[in-house]
Amino acid sequence: MSALQPVTLRGTRVVLEPLAPEHHDALVAAARDGELWKLWYTSVPTPEGMRREIDRRLALQDAGSMLPFTARLAADGGTAGRVIGMTTYMNIDRETPRVEIGSTWNAASAQRTGTNTESKYLLLRHAFEVLGCPAVEFRTHWLNHQSREAITRLGAKQDGVLRSHTRAANGELRDTVVYSILAHEWPMVRDHLLHRMSRHS
């Protein structure tokens, strides 16, 4: 896992670059696009809490348990380079090695444009083909049906449900659904994602 260090992953629609403190203002603007922090089933930081969230993710990076990214639009045009959200490798297990892709959010105007699919493709490709992970994990709230459907469309399979697993932002206990993709499944998942992305071209 020596390759598990800050890296820029480039696609045709989105660029994932290492999270940095100077991304603060652009991330606040992205979160305001749809007022994402008001969605009860997500944990998108408020504008006032964005600095704390950046600091939290960077502290976890320093501790070796997270590798956070800022997502930017890569396509040509007037919006090229605009920050649209965040994503991470998290719960990093360097011995296996294994990572979870999570703590992801995208501005409302960037949703259903193919950017999220390409972000997941870039992260999965790096995890399997560079880091050598035997498995990549996804987790989401049991009641976050949009997220569950999106994970399933990636080609991930449900491993199980962790009941009363953690507390949501409002303090209520949440059930967490766990999904994974295994290394031997990656070639088929990769081809599926490439086909999906070609339909957005």
Question: How would you describe what is shown here?
Answer:
The chain has helices at 24-32, 50-63, 115-129, 145-154, 186-198, and strands spanning 9-10, 14-18, 66-73, 83-93, 98-106, 135-141, 157-167, 173-182. The chain is built from 5 helices and 8 strands. It has one domain (9-198): 3-Layer(aba) Sandwich (Aminopeptidase). The chain is of the alpha+beta class. It has an 8-stranded mixed sheet, with helices on both faces. The mean pLDDT is 91. Helix 3 (115-129) packs antiparallel against helix 5 (186-198). 30% of the residues lie in helices and 31% in strands. The radius of gyration is 16 Å and the shape is globular.
What fraction, in percent, of the residue positions are helical?
25-40%
What would you say the CATH architecture is? 3-Layer(aba) Sandwich
The DSSP helix count reads 5
**Overall residue-averaged pLDDT value:** 91
Q: Beta-strand percentage?
A: 25-35%
Largest sheet: 8 strands, mixed
Number of E-type strands = 8
Number of domains: 1
- Helices and strands, in N-to-C order? EEHHEEEHEHEEH
What is the CATH class? Alpha Beta
First-last Cα distance:
34 Å
Round the Cα radius of gyration to an integer and report it.
16 Å
CATH fold title = Aminopeptidase
* CATH homologous superfamily placement: Gcn5-related N-acetyltransferase (GNAT)
Any low-confidence stretches, pLDDT <50, length ≥5?
none
Strand arrangement within the widest β-sheet reads: 1-2-3-4-5-6-8-7
Please state the structural category. Answer: alpha+beta
Overall 3D form: globular
